[in-house]
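Methods, example record. To illustrate the input and output format used throughout this study, we show the complete record for ABC transporter ATP-binding protein. The sequence lines were provided to the predictor; the line carrying structure tokens was produced by it.
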Amino acid sequence: MSTVAGPLLSARGLHVTFPGRRGASPARAVDGVDLDIGAGEIVALVGESGCGKTTLARSLLGLVRPSSGSVSFAGKPLVYAPGALKAYRRRAQLVLQDPSGSLNPRHTVYDAVAEGLRIHGHEGDERAAVAGALARAGLRPPERFFLRYPHELSGGQRQRVVIAGALVLEPELIVADEPVASLDASVRGEVLALLLRLRDELGLSALVVTHDLGLAWNIADRVAVMYLGRVVETGPVESVLTAPRHPYTRALLSVLPESGGAPVVLTGEPPDPSRVPPGCRFHVRCQVLASGEADAVAERCRTADLPVLGGGGERAVACHWVTREGAGG
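The corresponding predicted structure is encoded as:
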């Protein structure tokens, strides 16, 4: 576990833009985000497809360079020189959504897990390191899997191989992008339990990127809900998911079977990130504004921008209706 005072990973004022198509305005994929991840903490980054969460995750790993803002790891700013990035990626590893796509079908399990060691010039006992990583990922006895190929494994076993490939470098942080989205329901719980065990046994920190608030509930200490490039609600997972305050969070939660209420059907699609609406970026789809309940702040919703939420553990929400005087602010 890291002994660094303060957060292990910290982003401040992060923006990532991509050139617009055919002269259009740049796409603001990440449009002002502060986010901290503490040592031994699991943070869930939640939102619909296209909200910017994968781009944010990749920028935190140095895979996408931000247009502005900063990323720090263990108290030191991220340096984008090739050698510095290589050293950083030994400490912060990515686990992708689709294990079939991230495993070379021509490589054995042993070679897949050993690849990171070879890239980083590991000088110790390679066989012992690979065996240890497979065992920690729940593939036991590990030697039984050394010479097997991805097509010979189940989906859950392939995901464990991918996790082992990250663990073999003994990172302090893993970023897991939809880590169980491609798995059967019966296997999802096993992989989530594995991530929790790794946190408890190794002090591993994790950012789990997901569209599934139910998954966040089962695994995260803290949740950040993202919409159109911004975090719109954040805080301890239990407080956010038992008493959501932002209308968007409420809509996401309403479709879970255990919510007990009627699902909130949002109108339309999220706006194009090259044409972010003025004011609250959710106002064009907001069920509270559409119902008339937020009439007192409707003009602010449509015209007044909201501040970037803090990146730490405090409960915060970016919503004019919630933060108006007398609304539980």
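Annotations derived from this record:
The first helix runs from residue 53 to 60.
DSSP finds 13 helices and eleven strands in the chain.
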